[in-house]
Amino acid sequence: MASTEAAAGSAATPAKAKAVPSVRTITWLTMCFMTVSAVASIRNTPSMAVYGLACIFLYALPALVFLLPTSLVAAELASGWDGGVYNWVSQGISPQAGFLAIWTQFAMTLTYYPSLLAYVASTLAYVFMPSLASNGYYTAAAIIIIYWLSTLVSMRGVGLVAKLSSSSMLLGTAIPGSALIILGIIFLVQGNHSAAPMNVGHLLPQFAGLASLVLIVNNFLSYAGMEVNAVHVKSMKNPGKEFPKAMFIAMPIVVAIFVLPALAISWVVPASELTLTGGVMQAFTAFFNHFHVPWLTPLLGIMLVTASLGGMMAWLAGPSKGLLLIGRKEGYLPPFFQKVNAAGIQVNILFVQGAIVSVIALMFALIPNVSSVYWIFSVITTQVYLIMYFLMFIAVMRLRRTQPDHPRGYRAPMVFVLASVGFVSSAAAFLIGFVPSSQFGSGSTLRYVLMIGGGLVVIGLLIPFLFLKFRKPSWKNAVPASEAEQD
């Protein structure tokens, strides 16, 4: 924040506080929809649709060993400690580990946004000009333009973001997902043959080697984010009960959104023809052409874009806000990154983040194979984010030992078993992430490992280390807090 704003902060804040009263507006149902919007999307389903009936197993396994532990652990932590992952890990391990946790939760978005918006760009291409779906220059331009427009919207405050996220989940995920399933069932009932075998012998995937396991990593990313909206628990009337309730309702919805549309896609699009960024629209195009209603394709494309942008809004509002609050309170961030606007939104963090996302987006124009770039960024995103989950699982076990009597609105059953399973599965996904999959193409294995490892080290470890090493006492509360953040 500029010096004039800092100087005026103490005088301006009380007046604003009267004009903008603190109102708790997020219900458990809204929190549920925000969580589903942040986590579930049918955009990732093509990567599993190539396995046909086996996609059930490939989604169910990560759900049992990752989604379930993550959701129940997050529910207990959020019901006992506000402040999100930073406070959970700080209380359970150390403040430095807490900063690493909130940083990795934020930093994974640097690679998450380009991969998400690459899907959006491909979907829009099917609406206006399908030939652009694999064009790297178009993809890069679309990512940059859409990201900055979304950032401008998010700067208007968390209330607007909550409404957009919850409504977009219904309009852009529930309706298109249901449409895929219904169209698929009608397609099969009419006697049409499924593009993928649907017999019992194909319930389990036939792995061709370790490289085939890498696709499961993408499913860990699909289920990541159940805890992301915990930073907003103060906006709930009774977070100790309402947040766990939101988690329990969200879990089966998330699994259903992934599994059922993936099956429907496998029925109509052969695995050899599926693309990671355009697979969903390939399925809709095939279904609508079959039923002689091709004019519906653009409409569904717009709905899918709505869902993705709603999920992106939830991510824009959560991790970066948590980083701001902790960076200011504990002095981890320089004053420049502590600047907020009148709505309490972390404008400079979002601007710098946008600049980085824009640079990354240019890689889609420079590297010929869009699907390979999409896959690389998806894996880097997972690797960075898994660091936070390692810390979260350790923190919940230590808190059960060090603060057993601390008030909790919810206590996860067999928390040590849950956390151990979550930690081990996260470690397995982390290691597998360094093995190239067929989605990477025929590139060098060493080059792949260097790209994934380099992205992980720089984004997930080096940058937070530099912040901790060069922090100064003057950074602590260098910019007065805005009442707009006290939600």
List keywords for this structure.
487 residues; mainly alpha; 18 helices; 70% helix; disordered N terminus
Put the structure in a nutshell.
With 487 residues, the protein is mostly helical.
Write the layout of secondary structure elements.
Blueprint: H1 3-19, H2 28-39, H3 46-49, H4 55-80, H5 84-92, H6 95-128, H7 136-154, H8 158-189, H9 210-223, H10 239-268, H11 279-290, H12 296-317, H13 319-330, H14 347-361, H15 363-366, H16 370-402, H17 415-432, H18 445-470
Helix pairs in contact: 2-8, 2-10, 2-12, 4-9, 4-10, 4-16, 4-17, 5-6, 5-16, 6-7, 6-12, 6-13, 6-14, 6-16, 6-18, 7-12, 7-14, 8-10, 8-12, 9-16, 9-17, 10-11, 11-12, 16-17, 16-18
What this model shows, in words?
By secondary structure, this protein is an all-alpha fold. It has one domain: Amino acid/polyamine transporter I. It is 70% helix and 0% strand. It is built from 18 helices and no strands. Helix 6 runs antiparallel to helix 13 and helix 6 crosses helix 18. It is globular, with a radius of gyration of 22 Å. The two termini are 21 Å apart. The N terminus and C terminus are likely disordered.
